[in-house]
Every structure is written in structure tokens, then in C-alpha cells.
Amino acid sequence: MRDWNGSVAFITGGGQGIGLGIARALGKRGVRLALADIDEKALRASKEELSEVTDVEVWRLDVRDREAFAPVADEVEAKLGPVDLLFNNAGIAPALSVSSLDYAKWDLVLGVNLSGVINGVQTFLPRMIARGEGGYVVNTASGAGLVTAGSNVLYTTSKFAVVGLSESLRLAAAEYGIDVSVLCPAYVDTDILKHTESVDAGLTVTLSDDERTKTEAAFKAGVSIDAVGEKVIAGMETKAMWIHTDDWLRPYLTMRMEQLLNSVP
């Protein structure tokens, strides 16, 4: 098992949800934490909690803001040291029918879910390569990045893109001793709908009251953020390409793989 003690992790969306679960798992292993989130209140609470077990610094960061990444990276290195563990985790979960889409919604969701990952990779990966000491990148996608998520075209597009980015980056980064995994969670007990609405209330307007109640109940019944954090560590220990939160996707993955294979002449 790798000794993570003394490493520095940068986690977007680190103030809450899955990002906080990952931070907790890393913190108790002696990893120094740089947490970035758009929610300053969540960041303050996370820093207060995690400072009891490790060194923690926090930054308010909108992952769509490409120009903001480099100054934050410089500050992280000055305060904690070079980042060798990168978690591009920030994301939102829109619930939009195809008839409700417009360019603004495409730009917003792809800006957070896809460009946010690209911005993290492009900021920190060259620094890892230049140091020549390896590193690890974990990008958070979704089960919806492996199988189609119903009719949610925009969300599915953003998450399939993150999976493809991660799979190709894994091959490209290996020659520099940098490992890459992609986290593909199913239902996790987070307030993702509320977080999404805090970014833009219009991203969930197509949910009826009944649909919203059922969706929130499904998330509430999902895996805890602490369990996800431990699964991420376990996946990193084995250098897994894909990290799953449970086996919920198995029948859907089986169906997709069979359909793909059957389509080949």
C-alpha cells in the first residue's frame, strides 16, 4: 500500500459532497489538502473540520475561470508544496429536457463539468511533468459517462467527455509516471440538486415536484461521501482506470457492451 503521508492534494468541489469525502479519506492518511470550491461557507466548515487531522488551505474558485487557476496553483505550492495528487471533482447535475436547452445552458454545464476538468489538468499536469516525480490525477465523471442517462442529453454529454478525456490522458501521462483514474459514481448521498441550483436555478426547472422528490430520495439512499472517499483511495492503490461507488451500473454496462459488440459487422 502506498504511503500517502506528506503528499499534497488539490481538490475542486472540495468543500462538500464527494470532494469532502475524498478530502477526509486523504486527510487521515497524512495528505496535506488544498480545497477549492465556489461555496465559501462550505470551505470554511471543511477547513475547520479537517484542520484537526492535517494541514488544510482553502480557495474560492469557479472552475470555469481559467485565468484564476494558475495564481491559485502558485499559492498552493507556496503554502503546502507542489501538488502531486489532483482531483478534478467539481460538477453540477442539470435536469433538463432537450426542448429546454439553449446555448447558455450548454456553455454553463460544459464549462463546469468539462472545462473545469480541462482547466485543472492543464494547470497542474505540466507542473507534475516538469518536476519529474510522477503524480496522480482523478477526474470525477459519473455513471452517466459510461451509459446513457435517460434523456438528459446535456449532462450525459459532459460526463462522457470526462471519461474519454481520462482514458486517453491515462495513456499519454503514463510515460511521465503519472497515473490517471476516472470516478464514475452512481447515487451518492449529497445535495447535488441544491448545489446545482445554487449555480443556476434554471438547471432543474424541468423536474416536476414528484420527479424531484424521487430523485432526491434516490440520492439520499445512495452511498455516503465517506464511503466514496475510501473507494477512491482503494481505486488509486490498484491504479484502476474506472472507480465505481457500487455495482448499480452493472446491468446497464452489460447491456451497453453487448449492444456495442453486436453492432460490429
TrEMBL record:
tRNA processing recorded as keyword: no
Keywords carried by this UniProt record: Oxidoreductase
PROSITE patterns, alphabetized: ADH_SHORT
InterPro entries per the UniProt record, alphabetical: NAD(P)-bd_dom_sf (IPR036291), Sc_DH/Rdtase_CS (IPR020904), SDR_fam (IPR002347)
Listed Pfam families: adh_short
An example molecular function term from Gene Ontology annotations: oxidoreductase activity
Acetylation listed as a keyword: no
Family statement: Belongs to the short-chain dehydrogenases/reductases (SDR) family.
Name under which the protein is recorded: NADP-dependent 3-hydroxy acid dehydrogenase YdfG
Lineage per the UniProt record: Bacteria, Bacillati, Actinomycetota, Actinomycetes, Pseudonocardiales
